[in-house]
Amino acid sequence: MKRMGNTVREGKSIHDHLIELTYEKVREILIAQRKGMEMPRKELAELLDTQPSTALRYEKGTYTMNIPLFMKICHILELNPVEVFSTAHKQAKAEIKKHSIKKGED
């Protein structure tokens, strides 16, 4: 299944869909934490030594974060990277399960 925003399309395996959705949830967690800390994207960009437009692309998923960047963002946002991944993965699995039950694919 392939995710496009909040919709699911056929064409990718559940495993691929889980990976994409987990990454989407990771981004959502990071954005929520940044906003919860009342940190403007511009400030995050400065701490990452990049442009605000680049930080926006990471948040939107246009650019993919590598692991060192993810770790640095977690450090800046005072998050445990393992907990972020774990939470994101659980949320993604729950969403897939919910979708599967709705579609009768269980």
Gross geometry: elongated
Provide the spatial order of strands within the biggest beta sheet: 1-2
Q: What average pLDDT do the residues reach?
A: 89
Number of self-contained structural domains = 1
Q: Main β-sheet: number of strands, strand sense, barrel status?
A: 2 strands, antiparallel
What Rg, in angstroms, do the CA atoms define?
A: 15 Å
CATH class: Mainly Alpha
The quaternary organization reads as single chain
Report the uncertain regions.
1-8
CATH homology superfamily name: lambda repressor-like DNA-binding domains
Q: Kindly, what is the distance between the CA atoms of the first and last residues, rounded to a whole number of angstroms?
A: 15 Å
The H/E string reads EEHHHHH
- Say how many strands there are: 2
- CATH topology annotation: 434 Repressor (Amino-terminal Domain)
